[in-house]
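Milestone 3.1: sequence recovery, worked example.
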């Protein structure tokens, strides 16, 4: 699964995933990125076909892209001869009409029902109809993601409910069996379903906190730019508190030395006192001295 997701993101050196995993990723991306498209029978059939590109589920040939056959559909577990039946799907007769009603309810749910409640009902309804020979659970989880995206009006999932359901696989099958063998009361299922949404969101939040605690997500890129080379004859002058270098293309900043302090880089040089000089001569001397004390900051 990870290699397939990475390959869709364009990451290099990723092993080629199984075609069935590739198909599941395509289904999930279509469900979330195009959550606003109508959920038609053709779209649902294409999702189921993408899960089984070879027409086989393991070693068994199955119908793909079409509803299950006329034979009774049972969900069983256990060793051969000691199978335990957990669920018997509704008869094939009338399945087309029931699926049409289901898809209509997905695209046009009652506005008075909360989005999370609608999502939980849609998930339970599809796995109970069991319209296909295989892949019904994966399709129910894809529709769950699609309806959550519709409820939040965004084409992405910030937490994975599918991963949470897989972590609670045993409890998931237990609550399904209890609900499907009972009457029409789905309160217990919806309460459990909402708990899983809350747990999935908390897990995503904890994962993010752990990641941020490890440090910045992106380290600063190293600076490989070439360093400027001083022109021939240019002189590097280190002043107080900073490194300074003379560059031709920069405008010099002139720092006038104090009356009693020597110029930076010119030991012994002091501001001329001007005693005994004419005004013009004193002015020329001051300019020469200032020019010699020019400090060009890098």
């Amino acid at each position: 699964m990870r290699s397939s997701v990475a390959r869709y993101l364009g990451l290099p050196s990723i092993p080629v995933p199984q075609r069935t995993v590739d198909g599941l990723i395509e289904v999930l991306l279509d469900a979330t990125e195009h959550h606003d498209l109508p959920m038609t029978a053709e779209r649902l059939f294409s999702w189921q076909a993408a899960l089984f590109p070879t027409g086989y589920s393991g070693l068994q040939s199955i119908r793909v892209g079409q509803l299950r056959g006329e034979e009774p559909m049972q969900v069983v577990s256990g060793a051969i001869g000691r199978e335990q039946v957990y669920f018997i799907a509704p008869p094939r007769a009338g399945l087309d009409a029931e699926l049409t009603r289901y898809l209509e309810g997905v695209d046009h749910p009652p506005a008075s029902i909360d989005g999370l409640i609608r999502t939980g009902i849609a998930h339970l309804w599809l796995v109970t109809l069991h319209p296909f020979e295989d892949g019904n659970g994966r399709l129910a989880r894809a529709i769950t993601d699609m309806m959550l995206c519709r409820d939040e009006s965004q084409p992405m999932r910030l937490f994975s409910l599918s991963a949470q359901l897989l972590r609670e696989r045993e409890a998931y099958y237990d609550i399904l069996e209890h609900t499907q063998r009972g009457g029409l009361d789905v309160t217990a299922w919806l309460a459990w379903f909402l708990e899983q949404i809350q747990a999935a969101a908390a897990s995503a939040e904890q994962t993010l906190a752990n990641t941020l605690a490890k440090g910045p997500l992106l380290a600063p890129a190293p600076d490989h730019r070439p360093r400027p080379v001083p022109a021939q004859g240019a002189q590097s002058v280190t002043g107080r508190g900073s490194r300074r270098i003379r560059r031709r293309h920069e405008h010099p900043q002139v720092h006038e030395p104090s009356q009693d302090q020597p110029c930076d880089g010119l030991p012994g040089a002091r501001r001329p006192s001007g005693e005994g000089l004419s005004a013009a001569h004193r002015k020329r001397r001051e300019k020469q001295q200032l020019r010699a004390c020019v400090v060009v900051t890098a």
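The chain has a mean pLDDT of 80. Strands lie at 56-57, 60-61, 74-77, 84-88.
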